[in-house]
Amino acid sequence: MRRLFLAFNLLAATSTLASAQEAISFKAADGVVVHGEHYGENGARGVALAFHMAGSNKAEYAPIAPRLVRDGFEVIAIDQRSGGTLWGRPNETVKGVGSSSGYTAALPDLEATLKYAAQTSQGRPILVIGSSYSASLVLMLASRHPELAAVAAFSPGEYFDGVLVKSAAAQVSSPLFTTSASDPHEIAEAKALTDASPAKIKRQYVPEHGVHAASTLRTDRNPRGAEAAWQAFDSFLNTAIPRR
């Protein structure tokens, strides 16, 4: 009986995990099919949209999303059309397009994700999270969408030829969180963009131990500093999107 009970519990746990994470897809305005993963169900606190760094894919958030779910969020992590095979996973959106695009070409993918979330969130707050080049893209996205509940930019910078991200940051009024690696140049880039924003709630976390992009929240990439980064991020979220 004990073995049967343990087996039943294992099956139930596996079923719960399967139901908590599912593949999704939707189209960007130009017809490109955007692939993603959805974590959690009916997050009372809101919906977090997670965007990856260069050469990457949605698997960047595989160890990050579960903690956001525990914190009360649903999470949608996508494969942008500018990305690759980091983490040993393919980028399905790039695969569908045929090759990786330029950084700013991925902005329609972020817009499509926001549109998808807005249609399914039932009015709950929406948080956007960017990593490296997509940290700069979320500032551009937020400059067009003041309705966003919060913006988190991990290692933002002036990555784009002919596009001044600081000009977009100057129009971001949503609560803003920025951080970076423990690198003077990255810290300065994040500070310039944070300072440019007129948001009433904005915080730049300068880590003692930090690595580039959203990987700073991953213990496998930032074993000495991930927990401190999470504490800073959680503190910001508790102010910007309080628990219900």
Short description:
This protein has 244 residues and is an alpha/beta fold. The protein has helices at 2-20, 65-70, 92-97, 107-120, 133-144, 165-169, 184-196, 226-240, and strands at residues 21-27, 33-39, 46-50, 73-79, 126-131, 150-154, 176-179, 202-205.
Question: Any overview of this molecule?
Answer:
It is a single chain. The chain has 244 residues and is an alpha/beta fold. Helices cover 37% and strands 18% of the residues. The chain has eight helices and eight strands; from the N terminus they run αβββαβααβαβαβαβα. An eight-stranded mixed β-sheet has the order 1-2-4-3-5-6-7-8, with helices on both faces. It is globular. The relative contact order is 0.12.
Features:
eight-stranded mixed sheet, alpha/beta, 37% helix, 244 residues, 8 strands
Strands, count: 8
Please give the share of residues in helix.
25-40%
Number of helices: 8
What is the averaged pLDDT score? 92
Which strand order spans the largest sheet, edge to edge or round the barrel?
Answer: 1-2-4-3-5-6-7-8
* Distance linking N and C termini: 41 Å
Helix/strand order, N-terminal first: HEEEHEHHEHEHEHEH
The class by helix and strand makeup works out as alpha/beta
Shape: globular
* Sheet having the most strands: 8 strands, mixed
Poorly predicted ranges: 1-19
Rg over CA atoms, rounded to whole Å, is: 18 Å
Strand content: 15-25%
